[in-house]
Structures are given as structure tokens and as C-alpha cells.
Amino acid sequence: MELGERLFFEPRLSPSGKVLCATCHVPYRGWQDGRARAFGLAEADRNTQSLLNVRYQRWFGWDGAGDSLWAQSVRPMLDLREMGGSQAQAAALVRGDAELACRFEKVFGTPPPAADEAVLAGIGKALAAFQETLVSGRSPFDDFRDALSRGDFSSMKKYPEAAQRGLRIFVGRGNCSSCHVGPAFSNGEFHDTGVPFFIKGGADAGRHGGIRKLEANPFNLLGAYNDDRSGVSAIKTRQVDLQHRNFGEFKVPSLRNVAQTAPYMHNGSLATLAGVVRHYSEIDPDRLHSDGEALLKPLRLTTAESADLVAFLESLTETASALAPRRPSAACR
Amino acid sequence: MRSLAAGAIFCVALGALAAELPIFDAHLHYSHDAWDTVPPQEAIAILRKAGLKRALISSSGDDGQQRLYALAPDLVIPELRPYRSRGEISSWFRDESVIPYLEDRLKRHRYAGLGEFHLYGADADLPVPRRMVQLARQHKLFLHAHSDIDAIERLFRQWPEARILWAHSGFDRPEKVREMLRKHKNLWCDLAFRTDQARGGKVDPDWRAAFLEFPDRFMVGTDSFTPERWHYIGEHANWSRQWLADLPKDVSERIAWENGETLFGGLQAQ
Fold it and tell me: Which of A3, A11, A168, B126 lies 20 to 30 Å (CA to CA) from residue B172?
């Protein structure tokens, strides 16, 4: 975990020496960057997602091109618009830096190997170990839910009435909870929610492109670097099926801490939560295939109902961080 | 390593096939929201780059595919939808203003068919669809129906000699599709927006039986129901070439382009 934390804040992973993981995943911005689209060495096509609770995800990235957090952690290092690095450069850094090499050996039991690809896999796994520590704190909704389950009406009253009305829409006629379900408020799957997905020079293939990348990735869970010898973790990767509908689908994001992660949608095209609610309230069903996303219908919410839904969404945001303060670690020996 | 090498050879072989096999795309739309985001010149360039021999295109409203037809009459085969905007998908069959719209367009332009339209069950017997079928009969046009079996049967009852292209093969199972093809000799099927016919380049056994029993009755199609999907046409053509390569050559060529050319290519010859 300490190796991963060092690498997360290591600018030398980018040949530019100017871009690190934390450039886009900024700790004090909810581990995202507040921009519509990520900007490392150049502007990318998609919004930076928060890393809080990333350990609970099944697929990683808006397109699910990563089937593990460690494989996903490798991707930005090699993307020319993000960190612009290479296997050789990242591996040379770990081999050549005494502190990193020492920590690598402590974690993996051997010094950084000669094969660049194997070192990169190790870097990804260390980064994943660090990111798995990033979890969100309790939210007003959590307090309300727990009070409700123990019948504590006095505590329940502390939860704003507007948020309660918004919750009713969220799990009721809004159908929001059909996809935003479970502890992280995401089913972890991919949908076309009618958000335009043009990018410069074409269209963002979304999940379709993600599956193509997943299949071609030597770091996927079917590959040689998966530590799970049972094969169980790779079942999802073996079963994934490329479909026409995947073109333009993007992952359902978690709603935990959503008030801290503006702007929204895969391309950051909606600046506020009110804008997101308006999108679903006025969604254009013509943008969806008639045999596709049957759940999505214009909600036609009133102004007051929209405000209630926003109040509920805001109540999913932590009141205090669950993360321990970062402390400098001792040198590796 | 050996499997990687074999995979590379397979990919090279598929690449060669992709370069050789023309595609007749029987299910494209170029609707109002695409005209600015994918301008006509760019749209035609996409079709040519994808290696399409021809494309059956409709739009909501009709001006879209007319613009494409004017630019590339060798490539574009126009269809007329009963929609002036895509928002009419679920209302057109009760909207009497659709008929004068169709009549006006039919006076001014040539078409291969009416569609793709969405029509289910007893709605097919409403006055507007009935009049549309009469227009198809009068102008000797195909009907391109996104319909369930019930609506297809009702259309055939209205006009037993109708020629119907069944969009998405009704999203029905291959056994039901075969039943329908046996029953109606003037029924053809497009495979747009379906992936169940093949996985990883291998044709599903039930679909294989359908293709081998009716090699003259199927066509492929992309279904560009949003403007972004114009950028999927090339990908779809290559995906189609991949699974078609798993069929006997004469069957794959018929489904890839010959059936479309036989049924609709005549418009270019007129």
C-alpha cells in the first residue's frame, strides 16, 4: 500500500515529470479534478471519476476496459494524453530508484524483474492496493437509513424532508434505483442514457470500445499476471459479450459523494446535479433505441420535485472523511 | 505464442476478407439531428470507407436521405419513413397528417420502400397504416416494418402480395423467423441491431439453419438510430464480414450484398 501511495504521487511515471495520478485524481477534490474532461498532458474525452470506493467496482473506467483495479491503474500511465509513459520507462524508474526498488522487493518478494511488462503489472497492483484504502465516510442518508432500520424516529427527523421526498422519487416513479442500486448506488453495468457521445473526429465507442480494449489487454484477468490461480475472478472477463448496443454505453457511476464530483456524465457535459435531474426529467426518448433502454422515460418533474431529488442526491455525500491523514513513511530498508 | 501467431494469421485472413466482401446495409437512418453533426459529405465518406456497395437509407424527415441520394445516387437507395421527426415513432399510426406528407413526398421523389416504421399488433389495422399500405401498393414499394408477428400478419392480410422487409427480424427467435419465412414467400429479414446470430465470428447453430434454409431472404444492417451511430457503420460492416465468413461463400455473399442488390438495386437502373 505504501509503495502504491508513493507511485500515486510520483511525477516521474510520466516522462514529462509533470503529470502524476493525483493530477486528475486530486485528493482534496474528492479524488477527481473538477474538470469536464480530464487533462494530463492534453485534454482527454472523458470526465475523471472519483476514486472513493473504487475498490467495490466490478468493471473500471467509464467503458469498463479494466476488469481489475490494477489493470485499470496501468492505463493512464501509457495514454499519450494522460501521463504519456511507456512500459520501459516505468520499469526503469522502479528498477533505478533505490526506495521504489526496495519497496517493490518487499511487496512482491523479488527485485523488479527484467521484463518491463511484469514490472508494470506490479506497479498497477501497488497502485490498486493504495486506491483500495480510499473509501467515503458516512452520509446523512446513511444515518437516516440506520435510524429507520432500528425504528429511531427521533434520529430520522434530522434527515431533511426535501431529501425524504427526493428519496421517494428516487426509488419510486423516477426509477433511478433500477440502475443506481446497492451500497455504492450503482449496478456497475453500462447503459445509454441519451447523453450525446460525439468526440473530435468521431464518436466515443463507450462500452463497445471498452470490451475491445479489454480483450486486447495483456493485463486482463485472463492473462499471465492474474494472481488468482483459481480462475474465478476471470469468469466475468471470459463471459463478456460484445453487442451492438454497447456502442455509446457508459458505466453507471456511483452516487456516493456525488455533491463533490461535479461536473457529471461520462463527458462532464452537465455542470450541476440540477442539470442531471433535468436531463432525466426531459430525456429525449428518440435518442434511445426502441428496443433498448425501456426504463428511461421523461420524468416530467416539477420544479419542486427536481429540487427534492437534488436534495436527496446531496444527502449521499459524506459529512466527514473516513480517510486517515497521510503520514510520511520511513525509508525502506 | 503459437496461439497468438495463429490469431494474427486469422486476423490477416479476416482483413483480406473485409477488403473483398461488399456490404449492402439494409438499415440506415439519416435523421434531422444527424445533418449538422455528420454532414452529408462526411456521411457518404463513411459509407464508402466502410466498403458498402449500397445502403437502404431513410430519415426523419425525409430531406436527410434525399441530400445523401443527391450526392451519391450510386450508393444510396432511398426509403420513405412516415415520420417527419423521430419523435413520431409511437404516434404516427394515429396521425392522419402523415398521409398527405407521404403522398406529397411520393409525388416528388423515387423510393424503394416505405419505412422503417414501428407498428405492433392491432395498430396495423388502423386507418393510417391501412392507407400507407395502399400507397405502397399503388407505387409498388416495399414495406420496411419494425413489427411483431401479429402486425406482419395483418399487413399481409391487407395486401397479400406485399413485399415486406422485416426490420431486426422482429427481434424474434430464429425458429419463429423461419416459420414466418416459410409461410410468406414475400417476406425478407434484416439483422440490424442483433448480435445473437454470431459470437466471436462463429454463427449460432439455430441461425445457421435459418441462413442455410433461406439464403435469399436475409440482409445485414447497422441501424443508425442516433447520429453518433454513423461512426459505427464501418465497425458493423467488419463485424458482419467476420461472422459471414463462417458461412458457405455463396450464402455469405447473398446475405452480405446480393440479396439487397437483387431486391433494391433496380432503383439505380431506372
Answer: B126
Q: How many CB atoms lie within 10 A of CB B175?
A: 10
Q: Look-up: residue for cell 395483418?
A: B154
* Sign of torsion over alpha carbons B68, B73, B77, B80: positive
Q: Which DSSP helix (H) or strand (E) runs through A34?
A: none
Beta bridge partners of B77: B56
Write down the pTM of the prediction.
Answer: 0.92
Give the closest residue to B111 by CA, choosing from B142, B153, B146.
B142
Most A CBs within 10 Å: which of B90, B228, B230, as the mutation test of the A interface?
A: B228
And the C-alpha cell for A30?
Answer: 474528492
Q: What ipTM, to 2 d.p.? A: 0.90
B223 contacts A289? CB cut-off 8 A: yes
Residues with Cβ within 8 Å of residue B259, at least 6 apart in sequence: B24, B188, B216, B217, B218, B219
Are A155 and A42 within one domain? no
Cell of A210: 471498452
Instruction: Taking residues A21-37, report their average pLDDT.
Output: 96
Cell of B169: 427480424
Contacts of A298 in chain B (CB under 8 A): none
Please check whether residues A277 and A307 belong to one and the same domain. yes
Please report how many Cα atoms fall inside a 13 Å half-sphere around the Cα of residue A6, on the Cβ side.
20
For residue A13, the 8-state DSSP code is G
Whether residue A222 lies within 8 A of chain B, CB to CB, comes out as no
- Residue B14: the pLDDT is 47
Residue A240 C-alpha, separation from nearest chain B C-alpha, in angstroms: 11
- Quote the pLDDT of residue A292: 64
Same-domain status, A173 and A184:
yes
SS3 A128: helix
Compute the distance between CA of residue A135 and CA of residue A144 in angstroms, rounded to an integer. Answer: 20
Q: Does A200 touch chain B (CB under 8 A)?
A: no
Q: How far is CA B130 from the centre of its chain?
A: 22
Tracing cell 419494425 back to the chain, one arrives at: B146
- Cell 435469399 belongs to which residue? B216
> Where do the H-state alpha helices sit in A286-331?
303-314
CA B174/CA B189 separation, integer angstroms: 11
> Is A132 in the same domain as A144?
no
Q: What is the CATH number of the domain that holds B54?
A: 3.20.20.140
DSSP H helices in B55-204: 63-71, 98-108, 127-139, 149-158, 174-183
* Least confident among A177-186, A195-204, A278-287, B138-147: A278-287
- Smallest Cβ–Cβ distance between B228 and the set A196, A242, A291 belongs to A196
Peptide bond into B116 cis (omega under 30): yes
Q: What backbone phi and psi angles, to 5 degrees, belong to A171?
A: -95, -5
- For residue A145, give the CATH number of its domain: 1.10.760.10
